[in-house]
Amino acid sequence: MMDVDAGSGDRIALTVLAQYRMATTEQMHLILNPQVRIEQTRRRLAKLRAEGLVDRITLPQRGRTRVWFPTRYSAQVACEWPELRGRRPSKTLSDRTAVRLRVGHALTVTETALAFLQDARRRGELCRPLDWIPEVYHPIGSGEAVIPDAVLFYRRGREGGEGAMLRAFVEVDRATMGPERLAAKLHSYARLHRYVPAPAPGRRHRQAGQELLQEEWRRHYPLFPRLLFVLDGTGPTGIKTRINALRAAAADPTLASFLREVPVLATPLVDLLHGGPSEPVWRPVRNPDSTVSWSQPPSLEAPRKDPARPGAVAADNPDHRPDHNWSQRCAAN
To answer: What sign does the dihedral 311-312-314-315 (CA atoms) show?
Structure first.
Protein backbone atom coordinates (compact mmCIF):
# COMPACT_ATOMS: atom_id res chain seq x y z
CA MET A 1 0.00 0.00 0.00
CA MET A 2 1.52 3.34 -1.02
CA ASP A 3 1.84 5.93 1.73
CA VAL A 4 1.70 8.98 -0.52
CA ASP A 5 -0.61 11.82 0.45
CA ALA A 6 -2.01 13.39 -2.75
CA GLY A 7 -1.35 16.87 -1.39
CA SER A 8 2.06 16.24 0.12
CA GLY A 9 5.60 16.91 -0.94
CA ASP A 10 5.77 13.31 -2.13
CA ARG A 11 3.39 14.05 -4.97
CA ILE A 12 5.26 17.23 -5.89
CA ALA A 13 8.56 15.34 -5.92
CA LEU A 14 7.11 12.62 -8.17
CA THR A 15 5.59 15.19 -10.52
CA VAL A 16 8.88 17.06 -10.88
CA LEU A 17 10.88 13.89 -11.41
CA ALA A 18 8.41 12.58 -14.00
CA GLN A 19 8.65 15.86 -15.91
CA TYR A 20 12.41 16.41 -15.63
CA ARG A 21 13.23 12.73 -16.33
CA MET A 22 16.14 12.62 -13.87
CA ALA A 23 17.96 14.74 -11.30
CA THR A 24 20.62 14.46 -8.63
CA THR A 25 19.73 14.67 -4.95
CA GLU A 26 21.05 18.23 -4.78
CA GLN A 27 19.14 19.28 -7.89
CA MET A 28 15.90 17.85 -6.49
CA HIS A 29 16.53 19.69 -3.24
CA LEU A 30 17.10 23.03 -4.99
CA ILE A 31 14.09 22.56 -7.27
CA LEU A 32 11.65 21.53 -4.53
CA ASN A 33 12.51 23.35 -1.33
CA PRO A 34 15.96 24.90 -0.87
CA GLN A 35 14.84 26.50 2.41
CA VAL A 36 14.89 23.19 4.29
CA ARG A 37 17.86 20.97 5.07
CA ILE A 38 18.91 18.65 2.26
CA GLU A 39 18.54 15.69 4.63
CA GLN A 40 14.76 16.09 4.32
CA THR A 41 15.01 15.70 0.55
CA ARG A 42 17.23 12.64 0.96
CA ARG A 43 14.71 11.03 3.34
CA ARG A 44 11.82 11.77 0.99
CA LEU A 45 13.59 10.21 -2.00
CA ALA A 46 14.63 7.17 0.06
CA LYS A 47 11.01 6.74 1.17
CA LEU A 48 9.72 6.94 -2.40
CA ARG A 49 12.34 4.42 -3.47
CA ALA A 50 11.30 2.01 -0.73
CA GLU A 51 7.73 2.29 -2.06
CA GLY A 52 8.88 1.46 -5.59
CA LEU A 53 8.02 4.91 -6.98
CA VAL A 54 11.53 6.12 -7.82
CA ASP A 55 14.85 4.45 -8.50
CA ARG A 56 18.42 5.65 -8.71
CA ILE A 57 21.81 5.03 -10.20
CA THR A 58 25.09 6.03 -8.61
CA LEU A 59 27.70 7.77 -10.74
CA PRO A 60 31.18 6.28 -10.34
CA GLN A 61 33.08 9.52 -9.89
CA ARG A 62 34.30 10.80 -6.55
CA GLY A 63 31.42 11.65 -4.26
CA ARG A 64 29.25 8.88 -5.75
CA THR A 65 26.52 11.24 -6.92
CA ARG A 66 23.06 9.68 -6.87
CA VAL A 67 20.80 10.29 -9.85
CA TRP A 68 17.07 9.73 -9.33
CA PHE A 69 14.42 8.84 -11.90
CA PRO A 70 10.78 7.67 -11.71
CA THR A 71 9.78 4.06 -12.13
CA ARG A 72 7.57 3.16 -15.07
CA TYR A 73 4.52 2.82 -12.83
CA SER A 74 4.94 6.17 -11.05
CA ALA A 75 5.59 7.96 -14.36
CA GLN A 76 2.34 6.57 -15.79
CA VAL A 77 0.44 7.59 -12.65
CA ALA A 78 1.97 11.08 -12.57
CA CYS A 79 1.08 11.71 -16.21
CA GLU A 80 -2.58 11.21 -15.30
CA TRP A 81 -2.47 14.01 -12.73
CA PRO A 82 -3.76 17.46 -13.81
CA GLU A 83 -0.25 18.93 -13.60
CA LEU A 84 1.04 16.59 -16.31
CA ARG A 85 -2.14 15.77 -18.21
CA GLY A 86 -1.38 15.28 -21.88
CA ARG A 87 2.26 14.40 -21.23
CA ARG A 88 3.52 11.00 -22.27
CA PRO A 89 6.06 9.19 -20.09
CA SER A 90 9.31 8.34 -21.84
CA LYS A 91 9.44 4.70 -22.94
CA THR A 92 13.00 4.37 -21.61
CA LEU A 93 12.50 6.55 -18.56
CA SER A 94 12.77 3.73 -16.03
CA ASP A 95 15.45 1.69 -17.80
CA ARG A 96 18.73 1.86 -15.87
CA THR A 97 20.90 1.39 -18.95
CA ALA A 98 19.10 4.16 -20.84
CA VAL A 99 19.41 6.44 -17.80
CA ARG A 100 23.16 5.85 -17.64
CA LEU A 101 23.55 6.63 -21.34
CA ARG A 102 21.52 9.84 -21.12
CA VAL A 103 22.61 11.05 -17.70
CA GLY A 104 25.20 13.62 -18.80
CA HIS A 105 22.88 15.52 -21.12
CA ALA A 106 19.80 15.13 -18.90
CA LEU A 107 21.55 16.48 -15.81
CA THR A 108 22.90 19.44 -17.80
CA VAL A 109 19.35 20.21 -18.96
CA THR A 110 18.18 20.07 -15.33
CA GLU A 111 21.07 22.32 -14.28
CA THR A 112 19.97 24.82 -16.93
CA ALA A 113 16.42 24.70 -15.59
CA LEU A 114 17.75 25.41 -12.11
CA ALA A 115 19.53 28.52 -13.37
CA PHE A 116 16.20 29.99 -14.52
CA LEU A 117 14.29 28.85 -11.41
CA GLN A 118 16.83 30.31 -8.99
CA ASP A 119 17.11 33.52 -10.99
CA ALA A 120 13.32 33.98 -10.85
CA ARG A 121 13.34 33.40 -7.09
CA ARG A 122 16.07 35.98 -6.57
CA ARG A 123 14.25 38.54 -8.69
CA GLY A 124 10.81 37.86 -7.24
CA GLU A 125 9.50 36.80 -10.66
CA LEU A 126 7.41 33.79 -11.57
CA CYS A 127 8.96 30.59 -12.88
CA ARG A 128 7.84 27.47 -11.05
CA PRO A 129 9.43 24.01 -11.42
CA LEU A 130 6.71 22.77 -13.79
CA ASP A 131 7.19 25.81 -16.05
CA TRP A 132 10.18 23.94 -17.49
CA ILE A 133 8.88 21.21 -19.81
CA PRO A 134 11.45 18.92 -21.44
CA GLU A 135 11.11 17.32 -24.87
CA VAL A 136 7.86 18.74 -26.22
CA TYR A 137 6.97 17.31 -29.65
CA HIS A 138 6.31 19.90 -32.39
CA PRO A 139 5.47 18.43 -35.85
CA ILE A 140 6.88 20.10 -38.95
CA GLY A 141 5.41 17.80 -41.61
CA SER A 142 6.61 14.74 -43.53
CA GLY A 143 6.74 12.77 -40.29
CA GLU A 144 9.42 15.05 -38.87
CA ALA A 145 9.32 17.09 -35.69
CA VAL A 146 11.22 19.64 -33.63
CA ILE A 147 11.75 18.48 -30.06
CA PRO A 148 13.55 21.13 -28.01
CA ASP A 149 15.39 20.04 -24.90
CA ALA A 150 12.87 22.15 -23.00
CA VAL A 151 10.12 24.72 -23.35
CA LEU A 152 10.39 27.48 -20.74
CA PHE A 153 7.51 29.62 -19.44
CA TYR A 154 8.61 32.67 -17.46
CA ARG A 155 6.65 35.66 -16.20
CA ARG A 156 8.53 38.90 -15.68
CA GLY A 157 7.48 41.22 -12.87
CA ARG A 158 6.48 40.40 -9.32
CA GLU A 159 3.59 38.04 -8.70
CA GLY A 160 0.33 39.93 -8.42
CA GLY A 161 1.65 42.89 -10.39
CA GLU A 162 1.93 43.68 -14.04
CA GLY A 163 4.36 41.66 -16.08
CA ALA A 164 5.06 40.05 -19.43
CA MET A 165 4.88 36.34 -20.14
CA LEU A 166 7.98 35.02 -21.90
CA ARG A 167 8.42 31.68 -23.62
CA ALA A 168 11.54 30.06 -24.95
CA PHE A 169 12.68 26.93 -26.74
CA VAL A 170 15.90 25.85 -25.03
CA GLU A 171 18.54 23.74 -26.75
CA VAL A 172 21.32 22.44 -24.49
CA ASP A 173 24.37 21.46 -26.55
CA ARG A 174 27.23 19.49 -24.94
CA ALA A 175 29.46 19.44 -28.05
CA THR A 176 28.49 15.86 -28.85
CA MET A 177 27.65 16.81 -32.45
CA GLY A 178 29.56 18.91 -34.95
CA PRO A 179 29.02 22.68 -35.17
CA GLU A 180 27.26 22.34 -38.52
CA ARG A 181 24.66 19.96 -37.09
CA LEU A 182 24.06 22.37 -34.24
CA ALA A 183 23.63 25.27 -36.65
CA ALA A 184 21.23 23.22 -38.78
CA LYS A 185 18.73 23.45 -35.93
CA LEU A 186 18.07 27.03 -37.01
CA HIS A 187 16.54 25.70 -40.21
CA SER A 188 14.42 23.20 -38.24
CA TYR A 189 12.98 25.95 -36.07
CA ALA A 190 12.39 28.12 -39.13
CA ARG A 191 10.38 25.22 -40.62
CA LEU A 192 8.35 25.03 -37.42
CA HIS A 193 7.79 28.79 -37.61
CA ARG A 194 6.15 28.54 -41.04
CA TYR A 195 4.64 25.04 -40.88
CA VAL A 196 0.92 24.93 -41.63
CA PRO A 197 -0.59 21.44 -41.32
CA ALA A 198 -2.59 20.16 -44.25
CA PRO A 199 -6.39 19.93 -43.82
CA ALA A 200 -7.70 16.60 -42.59
CA PRO A 201 -8.65 14.18 -45.40
CA GLY A 202 -12.15 14.88 -46.70
CA ARG A 203 -12.29 18.32 -45.15
CA ARG A 204 -13.24 21.09 -47.55
CA HIS A 205 -11.01 24.09 -47.90
CA ARG A 206 -12.39 27.06 -46.01
CA GLN A 207 -14.32 29.50 -48.11
CA ALA A 208 -13.25 33.08 -48.64
CA GLY A 209 -14.00 35.22 -45.61
CA GLN A 210 -13.75 32.31 -43.20
CA GLU A 211 -10.85 31.61 -40.87
CA LEU A 212 -7.80 30.36 -42.76
CA LEU A 213 -5.54 27.54 -41.71
CA GLN A 214 -2.69 28.81 -39.55
CA GLU A 215 0.72 27.72 -38.38
CA GLU A 216 0.75 24.73 -36.06
CA TRP A 217 2.65 26.55 -33.30
CA ARG A 218 -0.16 29.10 -32.89
CA ARG A 219 -2.32 26.37 -31.36
CA HIS A 220 0.03 26.37 -28.36
CA TYR A 221 1.70 29.79 -28.13
CA PRO A 222 0.38 33.34 -28.74
CA LEU A 223 3.87 34.29 -29.93
CA PHE A 224 6.61 32.07 -31.27
CA PRO A 225 8.99 31.35 -28.35
CA ARG A 226 12.52 32.73 -28.36
CA LEU A 227 15.24 30.23 -29.22
CA LEU A 228 18.03 29.88 -26.66
CA PHE A 229 21.18 27.81 -27.18
CA VAL A 230 23.08 26.85 -24.00
CA LEU A 231 26.57 25.59 -24.87
CA ASP A 232 28.65 23.24 -22.72
CA GLY A 233 31.10 20.36 -22.95
CA THR A 234 33.94 22.31 -24.54
CA GLY A 235 36.35 25.14 -23.75
CA PRO A 236 36.28 28.79 -24.88
CA THR A 237 37.68 27.95 -28.33
CA GLY A 238 35.03 25.30 -28.92
CA ILE A 239 32.32 27.66 -27.71
CA LYS A 240 33.52 30.33 -30.13
CA THR A 241 33.53 27.81 -32.99
CA ARG A 242 29.95 26.81 -32.27
CA ILE A 243 28.71 30.38 -31.98
CA ASN A 244 30.46 31.22 -35.26
CA ALA A 245 28.68 28.28 -36.88
CA LEU A 246 25.34 29.65 -35.66
CA ARG A 247 26.26 33.08 -37.02
CA ALA A 248 27.20 31.62 -40.41
CA ALA A 249 23.91 29.73 -40.59
CA ALA A 250 21.99 32.88 -39.63
CA ALA A 251 23.39 34.61 -42.72
CA ASP A 252 21.31 32.32 -44.95
CA PRO A 253 18.74 34.57 -46.72
CA THR A 254 16.04 31.91 -46.28
CA LEU A 255 16.22 32.50 -42.50
CA ALA A 256 15.89 36.29 -42.69
CA SER A 257 12.14 36.41 -42.03
CA PHE A 258 12.38 33.94 -39.13
CA LEU A 259 15.27 35.84 -37.48
CA ARG A 260 13.48 39.18 -37.82
CA GLU A 261 10.57 37.84 -35.76
CA VAL A 262 12.27 35.43 -33.34
CA PRO A 263 15.19 36.31 -31.04
CA VAL A 264 17.86 33.60 -31.29
CA LEU A 265 20.51 33.79 -28.58
CA ALA A 266 23.40 31.65 -27.35
CA THR A 267 25.48 31.53 -24.18
CA PRO A 268 28.05 29.23 -22.58
CA LEU A 269 26.57 27.35 -19.62
CA VAL A 270 29.46 28.56 -17.47
CA ASP A 271 28.43 32.19 -18.06
CA LEU A 272 24.77 31.36 -17.50
CA LEU A 273 25.50 29.80 -14.11
CA HIS A 274 27.86 32.55 -13.07
CA GLY A 275 25.94 35.61 -14.20
CA GLY A 276 22.37 34.36 -14.18
CA PRO A 277 19.99 34.10 -17.15
CA SER A 278 18.59 37.63 -16.75
CA GLU A 279 22.01 39.23 -17.03
CA PRO A 280 23.42 40.25 -20.45
CA VAL A 281 25.28 36.98 -21.02
CA TRP A 282 23.42 36.05 -24.24
CA ARG A 283 24.88 36.56 -27.70
CA PRO A 284 22.52 37.25 -30.62
CA VAL A 285 23.46 34.78 -33.35
CA ARG A 286 23.54 37.56 -35.94
CA ASN A 287 25.77 39.74 -33.77
CA PRO A 288 27.68 37.47 -31.36
CA ASP A 289 30.25 40.15 -30.47
CA SER A 290 27.56 41.82 -28.35
CA THR A 291 25.64 40.58 -25.30
CA VAL A 292 22.02 41.07 -24.26
CA SER A 293 19.53 39.79 -21.69
CA TRP A 294 17.31 36.98 -22.93
CA SER A 295 14.20 38.63 -21.47
CA GLN A 296 14.45 41.96 -23.27
CA PRO A 297 11.98 42.63 -26.09
CA PRO A 298 13.80 42.57 -29.44
CA SER A 299 12.96 46.22 -30.05
CA LEU A 300 14.53 47.22 -26.75
CA GLU A 301 17.67 45.14 -26.96
CA ALA A 302 20.71 47.33 -26.44
CA PRO A 303 23.70 45.14 -27.23
CA ARG A 304 26.88 45.94 -25.37
CA LYS A 305 30.42 44.95 -26.18
CA ASP A 306 31.38 41.51 -25.04
CA PRO A 307 34.42 40.36 -23.05
CA ALA A 308 37.41 39.15 -25.02
CA ARG A 309 35.81 35.84 -26.02
CA PRO A 310 32.84 33.60 -25.15
CA GLY A 311 33.13 32.30 -21.61
CA ALA A 312 35.98 34.66 -20.71
CA VAL A 313 34.35 36.21 -17.65
CA ALA A 314 33.68 32.95 -15.88
CA ALA A 315 35.97 30.43 -17.49
CA ASP A 316 39.19 32.39 -17.06
CA ASN A 317 38.67 33.07 -13.36
CA PRO A 318 38.88 29.90 -11.24
CA ASP A 319 37.02 31.64 -8.40
CA HIS A 320 34.04 32.22 -10.69
CA ARG A 321 33.88 28.79 -12.33
CA PRO A 322 30.67 26.96 -11.33
CA ASP A 323 31.14 23.40 -10.18
CA HIS A 324 29.35 21.33 -12.78
CA ASN A 325 32.30 19.03 -13.49
CA TRP A 326 29.98 16.04 -13.07
CA SER A 327 28.72 16.96 -16.53
CA GLN A 328 32.10 16.28 -18.10
CA ARG A 329 32.70 13.21 -15.95
CA CYS A 330 29.36 11.73 -17.00
CA ALA A 331 30.44 11.97 -20.62
CA ALA A 332 33.38 9.71 -19.92
CA ASN A 333 31.29 6.99 -18.32
So the answer is: positive
Intra-chain end-to-end CA distance of the chain, in Å = 37
Burial class of 220 by CB neighbour count within 10 A (0 to 12, 13 to 18, 19+)? exposed
Nearest-angstrom CA–CA distance, 97 and 294: 36
Q: What is the mean pLDDT, run by run of 10 residues, along the chain of 333 residues?
A: 57 94 96 92 94 92 85 89 80 78 94 97 93 95 95 85 88 95 97 90 52 86 97 95 97 96 97 94 95 77 46 36 40 39
State the amino acid at position 276 in one-letter form: G
| Backbone φ, ψ for residue 21 (5° rounding) | 80, -55
Question: Which DSSP category does 292 fall into?
Answer: B
Rounded to an integer, what is the distance from CA 268 to the centroid of its chain? 14
State how far the Cα of 271 lies from the Cα of 327, in Å rounded to an integer.
15
DSSP bridge partners of 28: none
Other C-beta atoms lying within 10 Å of the C-beta of residue 141:
13
CA dist 248 → 14, 87, 182, 242, 280 (Å):
42, 36, 12, 10, 22
How far, in Å, CA of 89 to CA of 70, rounded? 10
How far is C-alpha 72 from the geometric centre of its chain's CA atoms?
A: 23
DSSP string, 209-278: TSPPP--GGGGT-SSPPEEEEEE-SS-HHHHHHHHHHHHHHHT-GGGHHHHHHS-EEEEEHHHHHHH-TT
- Residue 84 near residue 19, CB atoms below 8 Å: yes
Global pTM value: 0.85
